[in-house]
Design a protein that fits this description.
Layout: H1 3-17, H2 24-30, H3 33-36, E1 38-41, E2 45-49, E3 59-63, H4 75-96, E4 100-105, E5 121-126, H5 130-137, H6 144-156
Antiparallel strand pairs: 1-2, 2-3, 3-5, 4-5
The site of zinc ion (ZN) has 5 residues, from α2.
Amino acid sequence: MPEQFWAPWRLEYIERADEQDGCVFCNALAGEDEETLVVHRGERAFVLLNRFPYTSGHLMVAPVRHVGDFGDLEDDEALELHRLTQSALGALAQVYAPQGYNVGWNLGRVAGAGVLDHIHLHVVPRWAGDTNFMPVLADVRVMPEALAETRRRVAAAWPS
Ligand SMILES: [Zn+2]
């Protein structure tokens, strides 16, 4: 994966994540979906919008349990994380019809992780040519209204 793809949003995410009090994922679980941008709650894993997206519909899939080591995931957590990723791809296909996706884990700060002690998987919709304009957009603050609308649309499109 070319460095130029990962660099802009990971830097943005590290910067903003450091400003948070407590764990952003545990806080999201404890809050209201509309406020914390949770799209779907499963039994052992859940899905939320990235507040500082690299592209429209940038989702994160995380275990419910506060776990920072990938090797500590239990079998049913690992399974549900990937099942929810499949559903996320289905919902995003309906809402945004992306041409491709990046799906992956950033483990450790040098690998781009902004939150180190609660692992999460990124689902980033991609379109041809998006690297040409996204580094520019990374500096633009996304309006809360736009994120709320995205959350509503992805949640509504979630496969049952
Ligand atoms: Zn946590």
